[in-house]
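re: that chain from earlier
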Amino acid sequence: MDQHSALDAFAALSQETRLAVFRLLVSAGPEGLASGEIGERLGVRQNTMSTNLGILLKAGLVRRVRDGRTVRYHADHTGISGLLGFLLEDCCGGKPDLCQPVIKQISCA
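^ sequence. v structure.
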């Protein structure tokens, strides 16, 4: 991930609703959530949710999959990994043991 893409991702996450959507999709796991369900869970109107999902999609933090007549959204783990990699790219000045607490905290293992 380059600096411009990282800035887009941070800008997308810097708004309360979008951050809530992102965190909800991360916690939803691989099955993701239908766009309407996201709005219902967060109490956000459909047109507002659509705009916010579009911004997260453009930033590479979520992806969408058509499931019949429904559109399901998922956290985009490639985008998330890219952002985290960008943040930690020069971490620890060549001493990876210093980064282990951070890596352990963000890993799913």
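Strands lie at 33-34, 62-67, 70-75.
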